Each structure stands twice: as C-alpha cells, then as structure tokens.
Amino acid sequence: MDGILNIYKEKGFTSHDVVAKLRGIVKQKKIGHTGTLDPDASGVLPVCLGKATKVCDLLTDKDKTYEAVMQLGVVTDTQDLSGKILNKQDVTASEEEIREAVMSFTGVYDQIPPMYSALKVNGKKLYELAREGKVVERKPRQVTIHKISILEIDMVKKTVTMTVECSKGTYIRTLCQDIGGKLGCGGAMAQLKRTRVSSFLLDDSITLAEVERLMAEGTVEEKLIPVDSLFEHLDAVTVSKKYQKYVDNGNKIEISFLTLPVTTSKNQEFRVYDENNRFVGIFEAENRRFLKPKKMFL
C-alpha cells in the first residue's frame, strides 16, 4: 500500500509502537510516522506507507494544533505530571493575570527543548541522558505560537485548558512550564491531545483497532490518503505518453513534452502525472523550457 493513514494514537502507545503494530496489521515493512507524540498524549499521528514514506519529513515540518491542560503550581523534571515533582508553590495570580501570561506567549519566542525529548546531543537522545541523571546545555530554538485559545481557567483546581496552534518543533510541555515560570508559581502539562497536523484532522483519524477491522473487511485502502493530495496547491501537468520514459527514468523534461503547454516562472513547482493519471512526482521549473525532478514517487 502507498499512501497515508490518519491514525488516532491512544494514550500509552509510543509513536514507534504505532508503527510496529501497523506493520503487523497491514503486513508491510515500509512504514514511517510523521513526528513523535508523547506516550501520555493522544491524537493525530499521520503514518506513511510505501512510497508515501518519502513525505515523512515534509509532514513533520508542518504546523500543528493541540488541546492541552496545564497544571499551575507545580514543576516536574519531565515538564508534565508523569515526572518527578521538583517544586510546589501556591498559585496567587488572579484569573486575569493567568490569562495575560498565557496570551503573552503568542508569536515568536525562544524555547529551550526539554531534557526528556528525543533530540540528540553528540549522538545520544536527551531523554537517555536524563534517565542517567545527566543534564546538558540545550540551545534555545525559535518557535512560533500562531494562536492560543483559552477554553477554561479553573481557579479551584488551578488548571488552564487551551488550544495551541504552533510551528514545528514546539514543545507544549515546555510552553506550560514557561507560562508557569512567568507567573512565578511553576507549571506542568497535565493532558495533551493533538487535534491537527497540517490538513490531517482529529475527526478524520482512525484507531489501530479500526485499521485491523478494515483490513479484515478488505476496505482499509478506502482510508488511505494518496500522496499527491498533499500537493493540491500545486498546478498539475501531464506528460505525453511518447515521452513517458523520460519521467520514468527521473530525467528533466521539456515543456513541449506536456499534453498542454504551461507558462512557468523560475523554481515554480508542479505535480506531474502520466497519461494514465499515475502520479510521477514533483517537478520544478529550471527555466521556461525545462522542468527538473524535485521529488519522485514512482
């Protein structure tokens, strides 16, 4: 199978677990996920199968949306409530002060990645070092919080429920800790659900159990999202049958090889198909005469 399944990752599974279980369910080895989701988190995890694994990196780079619950008044070593408590403090801030602190993180800010993360330092994952009791210096990374919507502030439980639309590489655990730090009482992530990765939405996701059922019914391919759907924002062009060998061999092609002429600008990208409507790949305009392959999916 070649395409993308919009998987709902349930709590307790690692992203690697999802891939391993899917390999067993669909009896296919070439599978990759599109961005790690914490074991305690749930939600959208697009998984690429077959030729679609070529877009794993592309989807990892896309914007995401999360629904999170932040617990104020506590700091942990993992920045969420699964970790060891390092500090507890009374929350003295008012609801308005909490709201202002949360909203102040909208925009671009420098975020220091957590020790309990899969980022590598000198070839070793940070969480491996953290489990050894080691703390290493991490350089801040610029992330963008496009939008924060506060759904509820519970002044009794001292929790904030919010949705966060953010750029790639944003750690919601760290955001919660940073908000708590700004309020002077500390903060940690209590719950996390990813509701969107690019155009992949929570409402359209399916569980591993559903994939298993669909496999048994022989209908799983109905849920398989074709690779070219990720590039619908690009103009589509078709190569004439007599020139098909050029694209099959990964060569650049002349504009005259297309069934219909197109006007190009330098570096403009196109979805290229053959006359059987088979998706060939993404080609880029080298000049007004030639298109060169950028990413092939044959």
TrEMBL record:
<comment type="function">
    <text>Responsible for synthesis of pseudouridine from uracil-55 in the psi GC loop of transfer RNAs.</text>
</comment>
<dbReference type="GO" id="GO:1990481">
    <property type="term" value="P:mRNA pseudouridine synthesis"/>
</dbReference>
<dbReference type="InterPro" id="IPR002501">
    <property type="entry name" value="PsdUridine_synth_N"/>
</dbReference>
<keyword id="KW-0413">Isomerase</keyword>
<feature type="domain" description="Pseudouridine synthase II N-terminal">
    <location>
        <begin position="23"/>
        <end position="172"/>
    </location>
</feature>
<feature type="domain" description="tRNA pseudouridine synthase II TruB subfamily 1 C-terminal">
    <location>
        <begin position="237"/>
        <end position="296"/>
    </location>
</feature>
<dbReference type="Pfam" id="PF16198">
    <property type="entry name" value="TruB_C_2"/>
</dbReference>
<keyword id="KW-0819">tRNA processing</keyword>
<dbReference type="Pfam" id="PF09157">
    <property type="entry name" value="TruB-C_2"/>
</dbReference>
<dbReference type="GO" id="GO:0160148">
    <property type="term" value="F:tRNA pseudouridine(55) synthase activity"/>
</dbReference>
<comment type="similarity">
    <text>Belongs to the pseudouridine synthase TruB family. Type 1 subfamily.</text>
</comment>
<dbReference type="InterPro" id="IPR020103">
    <property type="entry name" value="PsdUridine_synth_cat_dom_sf"/>
</dbReference>
<feature type="domain" description="tRNA pseudouridylate synthase B C-terminal">
    <location>
        <begin position="173"/>
        <end position="231"/>
    </location>
</feature>
<dbReference type="GO" id="GO:0031119">
    <property type="term" value="P:tRNA pseudouridine synthesis"/>
</dbReference>
<dbReference type="InterPro" id="IPR014780">
    <property type="entry name" value="tRNA_psdUridine_synth_TruB"/>
</dbReference>
<dbReference type="GO" id="GO:0003723">
    <property type="term" value="F:RNA binding"/>
</dbReference>
<protein>
    <recommendedName>
        <fullName>tRNA pseudouridine synthase B</fullName>
        <ecNumber>5.4.99.25</ecNumber>
    </recommendedName>
</protein>
<dbReference type="Pfam" id="PF01509">
    <property type="entry name" value="TruB_N"/>
</dbReference>
<dbReference type="InterPro" id="IPR032819">
    <property type="entry name" value="TruB_C"/>
</dbReference>
<feature type="active site" description="Nucleophile">
    <location>
        <position position="38"/>
    </location>
</feature>
<dbReference type="InterPro" id="IPR015240">
    <property type="entry name" value="tRNA_sdUridine_synth_fam1_C"/>
</dbReference>
